[in-house]
Amino acid sequence: RAAWLIMRHKEGLDEEERRQVAQLTEQEGEIGKAISLTEGFIDLVRQKQPEGLETWLEKAAASCLSAFERFAKGIREDSEAVKAGLTLPWSTGPVEGQINRLKMLKRQMYGRANIDLLKQRVVLRT
Predict the structure, then answer these.
(1) What are the DSSP calls for 105-126, one per residue?
(2) How far is CA 126 from CA 13, 78, 122, in A?
(3) pLDDT per position in the chain (126 positions), as tens?
(4) For residue 11, what are the CA distances in angstroms to 14, 104, 119?
(5) pTM higher than 0.90
(6) Where does residue 20 rank: exposed (0-12), middle (13-18), buried (19+ CB within 10 A)?
(7) CA quadruple 77, 80, 83, 88: dihedral, nearest 10
(8) How far is residue 124's CA from residue 126's CA, in Å, rounded to a whole number?
């Protein structure tokens, strides 16, 4: 629930939820740092600000939070793709949704049927 509250748009929170987020943010140590870094990254993505990415990566790498350090390292390794995602207007969301649906169908049918039944379920659905 806490992660959901932090990830949501602030305008969409009611008074109680805002109080809960503020209470979590005021926590000393790792929780407060993690929330601050998360909110910073969410703002970069939502506002499509690639120029702030390097600053955020430095903060994440210096945070002493291993999850954020690993995340920052992964973003640095694929920085061109991340910057493209922050600047280009295109989205692969619809394609990813279809791939996800196909994988779910394959998992449901694993070991039970052959490719003909899978093709029939995919074709009939679309």
Answers:
(1) HHHHHTTT--HHHHHHHHHHH-
(2) 37, 34, 6
(3) 778 888 888 888 888 888 888 888 887 778 888 988 999 999 999 888 889 999 999 999 999 899 999 999 999 999 888 888 888 888 788 888 888 988 888 888 777 767 777 777 777 665
(4) 8, 34, 44
(5) no
(6) middle
(7) -150
(8) 6
